[in-house]
Amino acid sequence: MAYDYDLFVIGGGSGGVRAARRVGALGKKVGLAEKSRMGGTCVVRGCVPKKLYVYASTFPEAFEDAAGYGWTVGETSFDWSTLRDNKEREITRLEGLYRSGLASNDVETFDTRAVLRGSHEVYLEGEDRTVTAERIIIAVGGYPNPHAALPGREHTITSDEAFDLEKLPKSIVIAGAGYIAIEFAGIFNGLGVDTTILYRGQEILSSFDEDMRRQLHEEYLERGIKIVTGQVFENVQLGENGKKIATLSGGDVMEVDEIMLALGRLPSTDGLGLEVAGVKTDGRGYIQVDEFSRTNVPSIWALGDVTDRVQLTPVAIHEAMCFVATEYQGRPEKPDHAMIPTAVFSHPEIGTVGITENDARECGKAYRMYRARFRSMKYTLAGRESFMVMKLIVEADSDIVVGAHVIGPDAGEMAQILAIPMKMKAKKADFDATMALHPSAAEELVTMYDPSYRIENGERID
Ligand code: NDP
């Protein structure tokens, strides 16, 4: 049977665009539909604008620290609309690059919502017609959890709106303590906003190594960010003065300019026609896939955040590349989700690869732990009370470095480089044999010769 397309991709984010471009480059007929802006979460309302805002928020610290180095910085001021509009220009430029990359690989794009009408049929809403494809990829990503159960949630914002606020609020409370809450708290605090984190648990960043969590908590308090733990919002109301009034589960009431929810993300699968096509989802709506990103329907694949494997841009791109290799290049490749480096772009940053101390305790094997805490040279003349913590987790039997965690300036960059030897299963002996680069902060990673403590059968042994 002849189809209109060899491949049709629903969703123009990192995963979808990569798959479409690569298959287009192989001379196949490819279509792609995107209902919003090309580039998806990462480019439009995620990684890229976030990192630009993180850069913006670091200037006040640099102005302060300059004095220790002999500089006198004149009066400074910040204009939110300049940052927001410049960010917008950059996003528009990147969106253009995504579009030209698709066009130059002969991918036909449709600026419309698309829904499944069958195992080979896609309905293009904006064109009111159905097209057919031999293979279909669903790469529609997700959206911020709107916390439907919270009374007054219509008075709150999520990261989607935070990027484009009309005015910078004077005060904000951010619910959640995962990646997004922590990064935005650093951004708002850096830009001079009175910032509070409200977290249901006891310590921020629950999936990270405990040393990183504790250190960042201290650093945030030091920078003036308030952290309220063990509580959630009971309800939110709009005050007569336009302020947002939040009542917390413990009974406290907070009155702030803005309230932001950063409570995880949900898959954009509602109304996508998954039931019509017979595509299975889990209880939360994420599409279930096998190790080759195949759904239960043989002609339909799913990539990226909508599958909830690991919600990161490079992972979606990798899954797309594996799909292309497997389906179009005769080279079956399963996405490899091991040893993924990740960073939290907080102030200071956290960079991490591999297992945490908690993971080490839970798996019951023996580990050697190497840990260093020191003031970064950058902060000595500035007199800033900010500390770096570096930690290596080494499997005792094999000597392989299975976890690396860094908090401090450039920790994200370090994590990317650390991921290479760790992916190659480098041993601690290889780290020890590596010459230090002096003077740098990262040299500490190759000069921690003696273990700080051990973990055996889940117990710490000093
Ligand atoms: P996360 O899963 O990182 O954090 C969600 C936070 O919300 C956690 O603190 C969680 O608490 C809390 N939470 C969840 N549900 C509730 C609830 N009902 N009531 C109160 N608190 C709740 O999600 P994010 O939204 O921060 O980020 C989504 C994903 O986006 C990340 O997992 C990550 O993969 C990706 N991302 C990556 C970035 C990066 O690489 N730098 C940056 C931003 C996003 P608890 O921990 O107790 O469960």
Structure description:
With 462 residues, the chain is an alpha/beta fold. The protein folds into three domains: 5-144 and 266-328, FAD/NAD(P)-binding domain; 153-263, FAD/NAD(P)-binding domain (3-Layer(bba) Sandwich); 342-461, Enolase-like, domain 1. It has twelve helices and 23 strands. It has helices at 14-25, 40-45, 47-66, 80-103, 159-162, 179-190, 210-222, 274-277, 313-328, 357-363, 411-423, 428-433, and strands spanning 5-10, 30-33, 107-110, 114-116, 121-124, 129-138, 142-144, 171-175, 194-199, 226-229, 233-238, 244-248, 253-256, 258-261, 265-267, 300-302, 342-344, 350-354, 367-375, 387-395, 401-407, 453-456, 459-461. The strands form five sheets. Strands 1, 2, 3, 4, 5, 6 and 16 form a seven-stranded mixed β-sheet that branches. Strands 17-18-21-20-19-22-23 form a seven-stranded antiparallel β-sheet, with helices on both faces. Helix 1 runs parallel beside helix 4 (80-103) and helix 3 runs antiparallel to helix 4 (80-103). Residues 176-181, 183, 199-201, 206, 232, 262-265, 311-312, 342-345 line the site of NADPH dihydro-nicotinamide-adenine-dinucleotide phosphate.
What are the low-pLDDT stretches, counting only 5+ consecutive residues below 50?
Answer: none
Mean pLDDT: 97
Number of domains: 3
* Strand residue content: 15-25%
Shape: globular
Bound molecules: NADPH dihydro-nicotinamide-adenine-dinucleotide phosphate
> What Rg do the Cα atoms give?
24 Å
What share of the residues lie within helices? 25-40%
* The CATH homology group name of the largest domain: FAD/NAD(P)-binding domain
CATH architectural category of the largest domain: 3-Layer(bba) Sandwich
Strands, total number? 23
Could you give a short account of the major beta sheet?
Answer: 7 strands, mixed
Number of helices: 12
CATH class of the largest domain: Alpha Beta
Instruction: Give the structural class.
Output: alpha/beta
